[in-house]
Amino acid sequence: xxxSNIFLDTCVILxxxxxxxxxxxxxxxxxxAQKNKITSTYVNIELNKTYYKDSYTLxxxxxxxxxxxxxxxxxxxxPFHRERERLKLILERxxxxxxxxxxxxxxLKRIMKYYHTxxxxxxxxxxxxxxxxxxxxxxxxKCRGSYSICRVDEVVEENKPFFVVISGKFLEDLQRIDDLQxxxxxxxxxxxxxxxxxAPIRIKQDPSxxxxxxxxxxxxxxxxxxxxxxxxxxxFIICDVLHTPFWRI
Length: 249
Prior knowledge:
By secondary structure, the protein is of the alpha/beta class. It has 14 helices and 5 strands. A 5-stranded parallel sheet has the order 3-2-1-4-5.
């Protein structure tokens, strides 16, 4: 398989910068070197909704608390596991060279200012088929739902057969999944697929549905002659249905 032209998923972009595993980061850097790297504006949206938004949350904590122990305590008390882990990773990054609160704050502010330049270095951005308006801004965290000018409902309408087949393949694959949480996640995704294929406008009315189907929408953005690169194994199913080349890094 020719890996000269690659399309990067969100997780690869993030792990290059925020992974706790130094060896993994090095392997990713080596893999990405000397390749024609692109991603879509939809991936940029996912960056905005996760680590970029979390950076602002963490900055607020650093402004409100008097020491880093209090900040860590607040992070550990957060109810959502993924958000909690992302905040921990960002905090680890900015405290690598200093534990002085003022210097940590300055370090985070610098990351926020150059966030997308840092994460997307060497990566060209192409427009997503969804044409989400958040693509035009680096500091939008919330979708405006039915007020949005995006065309994600049209993308679902145009690709209904693919969504239906992908849902069926996901359900078949459930038998191989032992993790209860992963099973529940897959069931939710399949439920959303059923709902939005019956009435595509619903994906626009409820932004959380769009986010749940993000991996499929990202895969639909991959141009001809490019290979989708991700760490997530479920892309095997999505890309097989879409006839999109896939490489699991």
